[in-house]
Amino acid sequence: MINLIIDVSRYLMILLIALYTYLNFRYFSFQDDKRKNSICRRQNILMFLIHLLAYGIIWLETEDERMLVFYGAQVLFFFGYLLLYRLFYRNLSKLLVNNMCMLLSIGFIMLTRLSFDKAVKQFTIVVVAAAVTCIIPFIIDRVWQLSKIPWVYGIGGVILLGIVCVAGTTSYGAQLSIGVAGFSFQPSEFVKISYVFFIATMFYRSVSNRTILLVSGVSALHVLILVLSKDLGSALIFFITYVFMLFIATGKWRYLLGGTAGGILASTLAFQLFSHVKTRVAAWLNPWSDIAGKGYQISQSLFAIGTGGWFGMGLYRGMPRKIPVVEKDFIFSAISEEMGGIFALCVLLICLGCFLQFMMVAGNMQAVFYKLIAFGLGMIYAIQVFLTVGGVTKFIPSTGVTLPLVSYGGSSVLSTFIIFGIIQGLYILKRNEEEEDQYES
Amino acid sequence: MKANANPKANHQILILTYGIVLLFIGLVVYYGYFLQVKSDSVINNSYNARLDSFADRVVRGEIRSSNGQVLARTDVDGEGHETRVYPYDSMFAHAVGYSVNGKTGLEAQSNFYLLTSHVNIMEQVINELSSRKNQGDNVVTTLDVDLQKKAYEALGKRNGAVVVMEPDTGKILAMVSKPDYNPNTILSDWNSLVAEENTSGQLLNRATQGLYPPGSTFKIVTALEYIRENPENYKDYVFDCDGIYENGDYSIKCYHETAHGHQNFTQAFANSCNGAFSNLGLMMDLNGLRNTSQQLLFNTDLSLPFPSNRSSYIMAPGADTWQILQTAIGQGQTQITPLHNAMITAAIANGGTLMKPYLIDHVENAGGDIIKKFVPQAYGNIMTAEESAKMTELMQAVITEGTGSALRTDAYTVAGKTGSAEFDKNKETHAWFVGYAPAEHPKIAVSVIVEEGGSGGKTAAPIARSLFDLYFSR
């Protein structure tokens, strides 16, 4: 009987998330606020239903009362977050907040299934991050000084990355994190943001050749340190983001083409120079030839995705924990295995929806500084999603980055909250301006 | 605020956004393709522990012959204990395999299908409510029980292997390897089967993995290369055989030192004259012979859905005379599997086009609805139609005037080649026969090897005869 309930819920969840995803894109086609608001309300209902069904299954499978308490705490959090955000900021983008909550809830579901302790830890971090980053839109609106301190961003970023490179702890062959007061802290997640701010503040001031040379130099330094730390995923994200931002700031195609050519050259060079790059590429080209060794992680991921198929095995019915670091870099495979390929694709499309919103904000901003920030952060987000999902599905070589808001990891969650908070701030800023214009005219 | 230095910024942001959206669409399409098309072959892997957990909810399906006889089934007793039953005992041992202590044969190859259930939704609900397992899908093979039985009995107590194939589809109709084991009792026999002092290798599927010297069946390759080098006048070749061909310090003997006398090319092939073919080898472009061998899939992974060993052809240009003399007649270092020999034969029968050998015809659910159908696939052309016609002519002569006399009959025409492969001076030769029938419109191809069976014409050819007789009597 339980099996039946679980099976039915599984299909129901797929249906609900498909609907949610549909609404996410339908939203863009409406102009008037009333219909947009009604879509967002329906999305909230869908999210809470999926969340309820999933925790229902989790409880049936584990018969652990702690799950119920944990579920209750999450519901309280989501209610509180959705409600308070609306109270503080009248002109917020509800869609963006909805998508954050949707992705967070999927992350909670999957993490609870993988490791209760980690899920609780993640939840705690999310609550703190949500509370702290709540004021970001407020700051964005008022603190214009943010555009005046490029060298704080630039030098701060380089120093932070440098510390990790020299003194960081090694995990899976890369120096990613440093220990601070018992917490493992992953600076590259935050340097991403300061990096975008650095580029935006510099290019907002001038796009003279001298500035371009200077910014290129500092950016290259970031990328170089990341490569030395063997954090190739981040290095790639940083590099592409710089080339794109340079292109948008100057409007010159030759920078985009030159940057792309340079990127290809650098990748080839990295392939020749670093054995771990070769290893990754080899594991990508043919994971089956060394299935017990270098190809283990990616082949386990493909087993998980393939065995799950379109409709998934059902929560607790798969073996996602066979995949090393499944709760971080490979969470997408776990979702696909147990919740189904359709569900996982919906997650991917929700992420794409977030990216489109980022780009719309970028397009709507008049000020170069804000435009570049929205654009840069959006690109960072999109590239990261693409690298992680593409990596675990063997579309591209695996680079070892997390799926923002879904993967386990405090630094990743906090930095994503900051990114979304900044975008939200810019969105609110713009809407407030528009409103003022309307009153004036 | 400062005005925008780049007036086209929004337009360019749009372009890059399209670019990213395109990347995501690519990813989605790839993902869908993987789930829909690729995943079956990916997940059916012994490293995928997930499949084992399927057995908690599904009763392993049946493996069946092409016309529906059960080759393997799972019986469930009142208390839910499951037993895998093989009604034909050891007859299909290597083809079907076993599914305890690891899996082999079709049990391994079709593991995913057997453990996946496609019974209809209502039945699933009823099973669920009465906490019964769902019945797994059944795998219907290409195997023909009658032919398998004939091959199994014809090989008798001798060691060796038989492969029967359809040349125009690649369907494997029979696959026997001896010595064998009884899959019904494999658990209790296990220790003796894998014991160190047990050197007979019952668990090895000789048909797909046994590597043997091809002996005179390799003259097919040598003859093909000679035809390629002399397409117009290859038939002008003549040789006088007195039973022992001497070249410098080396001598090559014909089987039992039979003196074949004056031989033309066709006669030399039909009578399997070692002297004539060793002599041909010396006249040949060794690079060409190597290329032809490799085109016929020597030194190549056959990349089939079941495990197979790759046949090896070692000789390279610059080889010494002795190696050339030996290699040209299929002795020396060259090795081939019975399946590979069947494939070469089937390709000749099929006008030069090699079809991929396969064992699973389709998968159906417990109710008999087809879930997945496997269709014949071409491996590629390994020789031209003209070359295959020339080879057929030569191979027919083997039957009508040469060593394949055991297959002379009015009922059908046969093209083939015998072989008696020496592997140990003090032991009898391995007896080979490869061939197909009818020669004009081939329907089946066989490859037979009897270890230490002596003469291919006397030991292996009669086995092929009995298979053809059975096939054409139906």
Automatic annotation (TrEMBL), chain A:
Topology of the protein relative to the lipid bilayer: Multi-pass membrane protein
Keyword flag Membrane: yes
GO biological process: cell division; regulation of cell shape
Annotated Gene Ontology cellular component terms: cell division site; plasma membrane
GO MF, one example: lipid-linked peptidoglycan transporter activity
Protein location: Membrane
Transmembrane portions of the chain: 6-25, 45-62, 68-88, 95-116, 122-140, 152-173, 185-204, 211-228, 234-250, 255-275, 339-362, 368-393, 405-429
InterPro entries: FtsW/RodA
Key words of the record: Cell cycle, Cell division, Cell shape, Membrane, Transmembrane, Transmembrane helix
Keyword Oxidoreductase (UniProt): no
Protein name per its UniProtKB record: Cell division protein FtsW (Lipid II flippase)
Taxonomic path: Bacteria, Bacillati, Bacillota, Clostridia, Lachnospirales
UniProtKB/TrEMBL annotation, chain B:
Organismal lineage: Bacteria, Bacillati, Bacillota, Clostridia, Lachnospirales
Domain Penicillin-binding protein transpeptidase: 160-468
This protein's GO CC annotations: plasma membrane
Stored InterPro entries: Beta-lactam/transpept, Beta-lactam/transpept-like, PBP_dimer_sf, PBPA_dimer, PCN-bd_Tpept
Molecular function in Gene Ontology: penicillin binding; peptidoglycan L,D-transpeptidase activity; transferase activity
Keyword Transferase annotated: yes
Domain Penicillin binding protein A dimerisation as annotated: residue spans: 60-139
Name of protein: Peptidoglycan glycosyltransferase
Pfam family, one: PBP_dimer_2
BP-aspect Gene Ontology terms: cell wall organization
Transmembrane portions of the chain: 12-33
